[in-house]
Amino acid sequence: MKLAPPQLPAALAEAGARDFAAGASLEACRLFNVGLTGVDARTISLDEVVLEKAALTEANLEKMAARDVVVKNCDIAAAKCAEASFQRASFDGGRMTGLDCSRGVFKDVTFKGCKLDMTNFRFAKLARVRFIDCVLSDADFLGAELLDIAFEDCLLERTEFTQCKLKNVDLRSSQLIELRGWQYLKGAIIDSAQLMASAPYLANELGVKVLD
Q1: What's the gap between Cα 48 and its chain centre?
Q2: pTM attached to this predicted model
Q3: Strands (DSSP E) along 153-201, which ranges?
Q4: Are strands 45-52 and 125-132 parallel, antiparallel or unpaired?
Q5: Between the CA of residue 24 and those of 30, 43, 66, 123, 145, what are the distances in Å?
Q6: What is the pLDDT of residues 117-150, one digit of tens each?
C-alpha cells in the first residue's frame, strides 16, 4: 500500500502558542516545545505545519482541518478531535491516550510508535492509513469505515470493531487479543496463527459452544 506523504516546503517559519487558537489558519510553520494544554482551537486550519514536542493534552481541536502535517513526539492525550480531518499527515511517537477522533476523516495518514490506547475512532472514515508499532488497547472503531488499512506490529487488545465496514485491512503482523466485533471483520486479512489464537473469542461472539 502506497501512501502520499506530507508535503512540506524547504523553509518553515517559527510559530508560537499564541498563534494556535480557535479559527486560526497556520501555514508553512513549525511549533516546537509549546505548551497548549487545554487550548481551545476549534476549527483551526493547519497547512504544511510541523508540531514537535507540543503539549496538547485535553485540547479542543474539534473540526480541525489538517493537511500536510507532521506531528512528532507530542502529548495529545484526551484531546477532542471530533469531526477533524487529516490529509497527508504523519504522527511519530507521542501519547494519544483517550484521544477523541470520532466522526473524523483520515486520508494518507501514518501513525508510528504511538500510544493510542482508548482512542475513539467511532464512525470515523479512514482510507490509506498505516499504524506501525502502535498500542491500540481498548481503542474504539465502532461504526467506522476502514479502507486500505495496515496494522503493522501493533498491539490490539480489546479493540472494538463492531458495525465496522472494512476493505483490505491487514492485521497479519499484529497481536490480536480479545478483539470485539469479530463478526464485522469481513474484509480483514489475518494469518493462520492469529486465527487459531482468536478462535475462542470468535466462537464466543458467534454463540458457538465448544466442548472438550
Answers
A1: 19
A2: 0.92
A3: 155-157, 165-170, 175-177, 188-189
A4: unpaired
A5: 15, 8, 12, 26, 29
A6: 999 999 999 999 999 999 999 999 999 999 999 9
